[in-house]
Amino acid sequence: MEGIDTYADVFLNGTKILSCNNMFVSYSIDIKQYCRDRNILKIHIKPINNLTDSLASQIPYKLPGGNRVFARKAAMNFGWDFAPDLRAGGIWKPVKVICRNGPSLENVHFIQKQLNADRAKGQFEISLNSDENRKVKIEFVSETAQIEYVNLFDVIPGENKLLVDFEVENPLVWSTNGNGDQNLYDFQIKAICNGTLIGEEQLEIGFRDLKLIQEKDKIGESFYFKLNGKKIFCKGANVVPPEYFAGLATDSTWEALVDRAVDMNMNMLRIWGGGVYPPEAFYTACDKKGILVWQDFMFACAMYPGDSSFLNSVSIEAKQAILKYKNHPSLALWCGNNENIEGWYNWGWQKEFNYSAKDSTQIIADYKLLFEKLLSEQVKKYDPSTMYWPSSPSIGWGRKESMLKGDSHYWGVWWGMEPFDIYKEKVPRFMSEYGFQSLPTFPSVSEFLSGGNYSFNTPALKNHQKHPTGFETIQKYMDTYYLPGKDFRSKIYLSNILQAKGMHTAISAHRSAMPDCMGSLIWQLNDCWPGISWSLFDYYGREKAAYYQVKSDFNQVIVASELNDRKLSVKVVSDSTNSFMADLTISLIDFDGNIRWADRIGVNVLSGISKVVYDKDLKNLNRLFEENSSMIVVDLSYEGKSLHRNFHCFTTEKNLILKRPSVSMKRIDLPGNISRFEISVNYFAKNVELSINNETGGFTDNYFDMIPDTKYVIDHYSAEPLKPNEGLNIRSLIDTY
Ligand code: BMA
């Protein structure tokens, strides 16, 4: 029984064979003695609240997080700020009957013993169960590693561990998206007893040297990943289960998340602790596409019980999760929980729950037992080569130490209502969460609400907003930067470009602070239902404006520029493995498209740098432009092709004097259901949103700023070819007023 959510009694032909209480554990029971010719398997799923309430009543205080903490069930199923509270139960993974005679192959684990340029040494630890003393032949072949191996082993009754060493000469190492190739070696391992195949496993292993480096330095303590000797800037996002009812997500649903990450130029995903452990297929996809995985154990935003039956259950859960993922080169880090320790020290729980000194001592002792001892020991025991980090973040965002060491969740923007520009000051060593909400795109909202001119107060819409002050917060930030939108569709659009603006500010700040800051993981990649959230694409898969912004800002090479009181400072940030010469062009352009001034320099883009390449006071240009209708465009290009571009207006969006542009457009249909659009505008168009009436497929870019009289080439791709008369709708900021 690979997954029962959560409390159930299982009967086979009337005999109770199992009581389960952990959604994350896979149970296997020997059923031979209960079997008949015709069998009845009954799984009695029990309502969750009775059990959690009764467990809660056995301790003298309430635990923060509510009674959900007693159940080993996805925390977000009890309601979260992006998910409803539905608390359903059921069979969420397959139930299988496995029949066998004699010995069986349980699993094969790969251990990297040594890695250098000439040679990699590996070991397979093969677990076999046997009924009696037997001889088992282990065979494997690897085409990529050019290895053929055969050996006969004596096995004894019970559990056997067979160790097989192998070597690969001149190994090709595994690396992440953007840093090198995803070299994998395939192995087909067979166990044979008396001429019968008793089990086989296919493995694709990767050799890599991955370390989390925490060293004292001038700021405090570093926090970065070093892969094959090179510092890696981690670009990525936090993953929530792609379906609220986790069992609805197939392997391909999870694999699709990895494709999205790659499309946005990411190299790391964090599996957030309030959801579920992903299927192994997710890790296989990450191996193949070069995405590192930061894996939380499933604990979030609470304190948990410390009794022995709870701890026993967690230790089985942890062992199974570790053994499931440990062969994967993409696995980067095990993390105990999400925000428990931040909550304990910063969220006022002691007062809220009126803990006595004795209660507090007990609660924190239970925390330590679980997150500093049990989980840490399980990782040491079953996956000693992977780092364990007890809690993300290690220090709460309100404390200045959170910028000096460890990982950080900076929620001063959003929860703290601070302006986006604060991201420039609050740059931690590794930002493992930050984000801003937006509404799903208009066609998606139309899928879950029947059409209408909604407002943030419409009950039907509010039902999809699970953050207590979500709409007020969006509105407040919107009013800071933009004029009020004229209708609901405009509001959706504004919330999208608002989120994109915030993410742009943050990513620029994080990447340009490399190597002091070495990670930027956005909250959140995806959605589990049609809700209003921090996601980059919505439940239906439609990209929000932030998706395109993030994709551009996670490009290998970017310009991180700032215009402050006429002072322009431009940094070039490169994650590229090679160095090259590029052109940096700074242009002062008015909204009619006249270039009033320009400067151009050659820039030596060295591999792995963030450095200031342009720093100038532009005050002497004052007479050349009007503040409300001109902009500075910073463009980095290579051989005439733009690599990355930033637009700086001299004032906030709401003060810009925009003109309604007329658009000229040409459509060229290409093979593979691609329609290429060549678009140009006569006046500056801010945050141009492209859409197609039937709303299928996606664009290579969207929500971008357009310089007048310049041809932009954007491809639309979809499963079905576009109809000949299907046109492109274009809106931009001016159309919201
Ligand atoms: C983060 C997460 C979630 C939450 C998000 C947005 O810190 O860990 O708990 O959904 O904040 O509030």
Summarize the structure.
By secondary structure, the protein is of the alpha+beta class.
Can you give a write-up of this model?
This protein is an alpha+beta fold and 737 residues long. It has five domains: 4-91, Galactose-binding domain-like (Jelly Rolls), CATH 2.60.120; 104-205, Sandwich (Immunoglobulin-like); 230-438 and 519-553, Glycosidases (TIM Barrel, Alpha-Beta Barrel); 556-657, Immunoglobulins (Immunoglobulin-like), CATH 2.60.40; 659-737, Immunoglobulins (Immunoglobulin-like), CATH 2.60.40. 20% of the residues lie in helices and 34% in strands. The protein has twelve helices and 39 strands. Strands 22-21-20-19-18-25 form a six-stranded parallel beta sheet. A four-stranded antiparallel beta sheet has the order 11-10-13-14, with no helix packed on it. β26 (557-564) and β27 (567-574) form a beta hairpin. α2 runs parallel beside α3 (280-289), α4 (308-325) packs parallel to α7 and α11 (488-512) packs parallel to α12. The longest helix is centred in the middle third of the chain and has 26 residues, at 357-382. The radius of gyration is 28 Å and the shape is globular. It starts with a strand and ends in a 6-residue tail after the last strand. The relative contact order is 0.08. The structure holds beta-D-mannopyranose. Beta-D-mannopyranose is lined by residues 80-82, 274, 301, 338-339, 409, 433, 523.
